[in-house]
Amino acid sequence: MEIGGFLWKISYMLHVISNAAFFGATLLAVIACDTICTGKNLKAYLKLSSVFVTFTGLTGILLLSILSMSGMDDLTNNPVGQSVLVMIASYTLVLFIFTLVVIYKGGEARIYKKMFSIMLISYLVAYLSRTYLTT
User: Fold this and answer.
1) Where are the transmembrane segments (predicted)?
2) Sign (positive/negative) of CA torsion 125, 17, 69, 2?
3) 62 exposed, middle or buried (CB, 10 Å; 0-12, 13-18, 19+)?
C-alpha cells in the first residue's frame, strides 16, 4: 500500500503542475492572442501545450486507475466521484478544442482567441466545481 500512496502523490503533483502550466499558457494565449497567434509563436505554443495536455491525460488516467482500485465503483454516489466526472468531461472538451486549434490553418486571431477562451472557461468550470464538490 505504501507504493500506491507514493504513486498517487507523485502522479497527483505532476498532474497539477501540467494542468497549471497548460492553464497558464492558455491564459497567456487569450490575453496576448495578437502576438501568440502568429506563425512561429503559435507553433511553439502548440508544441509546449501538447506536451502539457498529453501529460495531464496520462497522469489523470493513472490517478483514476489508482482511485478505482480502492473501490470507486459508482462515480455518481459521492462528491469526489462527481468532481472526477466533471473533470473528465472538461478534459474531453479541452482535448477536442485543442485538436481543432492544431488542425485549424486559417490564421485568424479572433477564432484562435475564441477557441483558447473555451479551453480556459472549461478549465475554470472544472476546478471551481471540484472545489465546490470536495469541500
Assistant:
1) 12-33, 45-68, 80-103, 115-133
2) negative
3) middle
